[in-house]
Design a protein that fits this description.
heterodimer; A: mainly alpha; 2 domains; 8 helices; 78% helix; B: alpha/beta; Rossmann fold; 5 helices; globular
Chain lengths: 175, 160
């Protein structure tokens, strides 16, 4: 659900919509605690996990969540009335945003959006290159959570090297 | 609190093939409402929050109001129903815009200003597509004052 919500958010951004992005973000955040639990502790049914499931289901049963999928479908089939800059310009903005941060976590989040946008625009080769950086930063992030990781530095350096290789591609889209 | 009640801009006519919720704004409706938004700006309309119905014409109308927003937009299916306490509970901030449909927009005005739950068969409030009403006061039925009701033509003239 989080992944689908992220894709919807990127699609809205590419099409120039500001509407529904806040609602989609809300949905992603609603699924966050359960997702974090599953990543760190596995999906075994414990009392705490059951509580998180109940919380998520309560959110999903609100009128806001119930009407969101149909509203998204209608919006994604229509054009934004503001006639903002087209998808290519939005792609440029996503690339510029990625280049503006040196924080690895923020970089990963911004590159993830950029990668999805590239895929949606069928720029698959560059999407694959950006994905490699996202995956490596993701591995480093997971190792940060693991106690006493002895491969943390190596993983981070691999991520840095991958980013150095891909940064020119991102700069091309940003210019 | 200030409440701006907006009826969606002119939209495609209903047809058997086109689901009501999927009716989009017409090109002329978009253009005219964008001009009306400039008129609203001259009235110092600014929003902390824009709540809109999930129907496409309301989403598009809310999108056009974004230049006046300093905050966020949020979908509110309560705006497809008669006004209720559930809707009022969503109104956070000092200045909130509600983008919805007739007859609920005029009923909302009547409910919040006079405590009436309906305007009767003739309807005492004319709310054309793209019209905006501004209410001010305590966000409770019968406790708000109508500060203004501008039909879209007036808003477009203000924009000039």
């Amino acid at each position: 659900m989080r992944s689908a919500a992220l894709q919807a958010s990127v699609a809205l951004e590419l099409l120039g919509w500001r509407a529904l992005r806040n609602d989609v973000r809300w949905l992603r955040r609603a699924a966050g605690p359960l997702r974090d639990w599953d990543v760190s502790k596995g999906q075994g049914m414990t009392e705490q996990r059951a509580m998180l499931v109940d919380q998520l289901q309560a959110q999903l049963h609100t009128p806001r969540a119930q009407c969101l999928p149909d509203a998204l479908l209608r919006v994604l089939h229509a054009r934004s009335p503001t006639r903002g800059a087209g998808p290519r310009h939005q792609l440029q903005r996503l690339a510029q945003r990625a280049l503006r941060t040196s924080d690895p976590h923020r970089l990963r989040q911004r590159l993830r959006r950029l990668r999805l946008a590239l895929s949606m625009l069928e720029l698959t080769k560059d999407a694959g290159a950006v994905r490699e950086v996202v995956d490596r930063l993701g591995r480093w992030h997971d190792e940060l959570q693991a106690p006493h990781s002895d491969t943390l530095t190596r993983t981070y350096k691999k991520a840095q090297r991958a980013w150095r290789r891909v940064a020119p591609v991102v700069r091309r889209y940003a210019s | 609190m200030r409440l701006w009640i907006v009826r969606h801009a002119p939209a495609e006519d209903p047809t058997p093939e086109l689901q009501d919720a999927a009716r989009a704004l017409t090109p002329k409706g978009r253009e005219r409402f964008a001009t009306a938004v400039r008129g609203l700006r001259r009235l110092n309309a600014r929003f902390d929050l824009i709540l809109h119905s999930p129907f496409l014409r309301a989403v598009q109308t809310a999108e056009l109001l974004m230049p006046l927003s300093q905050g966020r937009m949020q979908i509110a299916p309560e705006l497809t129903l008669e006004p209720s306490e559930d809707l009022l509970a969503l109104c956070e901030g000092q200045s909130v815009a509600l983008v919805g449909h007739e007859p609920h927009v005029s009923t909302t005005v009547a409910w919040l200003t006079c405590g009436w739950e309906s305007l009767g068969p003739t309807g005492a409030v004319l709310f054309k597509k793209g019209a905006v009403a501004c209410l001010e006061g305590e966000l409770r039925p019968g406790r708000m004052q109508l500060r203004g009701l501008w039909q879209p033509g007036v808003l477009r003239k203000l924009a000039r």
